[in-house]
Records
---
Amino acid sequence: MQPFPLDPTGQDIHGEGARLRERGSPTLVELPGGVIAWLVSGIDQIKKLFSDPWVSKDPRQHWPAWREGRVTEDWQLHMWISPRTMFTAQGDNHRRLRSLVSKGFTPRRTESLRPAISRIADDLLDKLAAGPDVADLRTGYAYPLPIEVVCRLFGVPDDVRPGLRQSVDVLFDTTATPAEAKANEHRMYEILNDLVAIRRREPGDDLTSDLIAARAEDNDRLTESELVGTLLLFVAAGHETTVNLLDHAIAALLAHPDQLARVRSGEFRWRDVTEETLRWQAPVTNVPLRYAVDDIELDGVVIRRGDAILPAYAAAGRDPGLHGPTADAFDITRPDKTHIAFGYGVHYCLGAPLAHLQAEIALPALFDRFPDLALAVPPGELRPVRSFISNGHQALPARLRPA
Ligand code: HEM
């Protein structure tokens, strides 16, 4: 069967997910630049595969196309594969890189951020309340809240933030040309190297300064490129993913006022909203890439050693094998909201408790402040971002007060 070319514009990710599912899972897909990978969209298949030590995220060891130079620096998704971080590491290297920051993301440490996150949400709501009746809630709320949180955690100065945000946007834009992606890569590393230089000169109570201190103590614990790569990983993960969760949760509730009423009355919890949103609209559609360390048989298909693998987290949340014929419907009352939006196995999202906390604070705060909130356009007119990796809207126009 011919590989299915993934739409780089990501204009209909769920329609595409359904078409891919019909071909069977795993199935071959073509990424921009002609790179071929096995897309896996069954939740149980992903769990089985990622429990298997024969799947790796390290291209340097386990992706022959990378090692042998068939996929080059000019590939537009190079930034997803090349940085040396826990995201692209395996085994001992992965444990070493993850353990350097994991203390900062335990449920207890995360909970201690609650008052600061509430203040950030309140400030943003004050700004919205002082503005026009119709506002873009992605730009005015869903975006700045997680960015402020991650930038404070990592000691990113205010004047560095706009450049970072622009670079992260291009990183997730899968329509970027190889030249655009390369220029963005240079810009991104310039900004991150500057950030490291600033925090080296003026250390603070933040995770960038902690990483710099860990490296100063022992160079072997963290190389300079791993330090910069780790910052890139957190800035990217902190910018786009929680933004999409808030964006989709707000849009879904406004499109389903009956369900919003049942949450506001206390019949259902905000946690039901976030879990159902993560299932229905996984904020990260597909995550590049993994590699088969050996031949793997998965439901009658053999993935050959060295083949690339792409987990389809958004399609997996709508797996009809698990969620039945209503898998495509947003329904906070469904008893089983199983999803895989934070990944699975050793690379399970380190920021999951932080993402949940932000949503648990930001959503009720918004709906309490603006009880008459309504979408300013029909839900069908919300346009997706141009990406098969990031799943969010380009804008979320909403009416804050009754007309
Ligand atoms: C709703 C919000 C979020 C979603 C849906 C999400 C999703 C994911 C997914 C799917 C992965 C696994 C990728 C894979 O290997 O297949 C991941 C990994 C990761 N996420 Fe998140 N993420 C979110 C928020 C955050 C936040 C707020 C942070 C930190 C500020 C964060 C930090 C990380 C890190 C460091 C990893 C790499 C873990 C590893 O490779 O061991 N994420 N995330």
Note: The chain has 19 helices and eleven strands.
---
Amino acid sequence: MTLTERSMLDLTGRVALVTGGASGIGRASAHALAAQGARVIVADINETGGVETAETIGNAAGFVHLDVTDEAAWCRALDYVISTEGGLDILANVAGIGTGGDFEDLALSDWNRMMAVNATGPYLGCKHAIRAMSGSGRPGAIINVGSIAADRAAPDLVGYCASKGALRMLSKSVALHCAHKGYPIRCNAVHPTYVDSEMLDPIADLYGSREAMVQAMSRLVPLGRLAKPADIAAAVVFLASDGAAMITGTELFVDGGHTAGVPPSHFA
Ligand SMILES: NC(=O)c1ccc[n+]([C@@H]2O[C@H](COP(=O)([O-])OP(=O)(O)OC[C@H]3O[C@@H](n4cnc5c(N)ncnc54)[C@H](O)[C@@H]3O)[C@@H](O)[C@H]2O)c1
């Protein structure tokens, strides 16, 4: 990496809030943003994991308890960030949940919960982050972590796909809202393929073991492996940085080629 590239990713002096920071992609994103010089507020309902992330990062990080589905909690969390850090520059909406199974058995409560965490949570985050970012006078960046499920439907993940589809258009619409209002705030989405995180643990039994699951899922990814949380965090850092200054309303698929096309069928 050249000096120029390094300076474009430099986040010194920026303040970031990362939801879902107690685990997986959120934890990796918190570490990666801090490694580029940002101060990071880790936000999660999992206090033990969130505090652990912040403590591992050290002085550059803090923790705030946040249920992303709760608007009053968002207001409290962002008031805290404004009062302690002087403003907010980066919001990474990473928190998410997923349940699957036969669509005809999908309980309304599971549907509502997925929509609440995966779509309503980022909506609340975007809405209130704009307020927190407007005051700083610095450019702001919002990164919403979606999924290839925002682009590729799956018969056994109907609620999850619907919630990530909503998040996809939320991101584009918020980007245009900010541009229309003249706010220096960009909003983009990152769509990962399967990521080797705790989120996959509940489905390991379907394959017999976690190792068998990883092997089977890796075969579906053209690059031949699951993504690591750090792979996704690298995209979050890029979209947060000045290197992405002209990028808004778009999406970055970090999917090892998963959504690029179909597998070879005739001549392989
Ligand atoms: N793991 C994958 O294969 C995969 C693939 C594509 C997209 N994603 C997306 O990436 C994001 C992160 O997933 P991950 O793999 O790191 O999962 P993970 O389960 O490791 O982490 C999710 C985090 O979100 C937190 N969370 C859940 N509900 C919350 C709420 N109401 N308020 C605040 N925090 C809450 C959890 O406590 C946890 O720390 C999710 O949005 C997920 O949909 C994951």
Note: The CA atoms of residues 20 and 95 lie 4 Å apart.
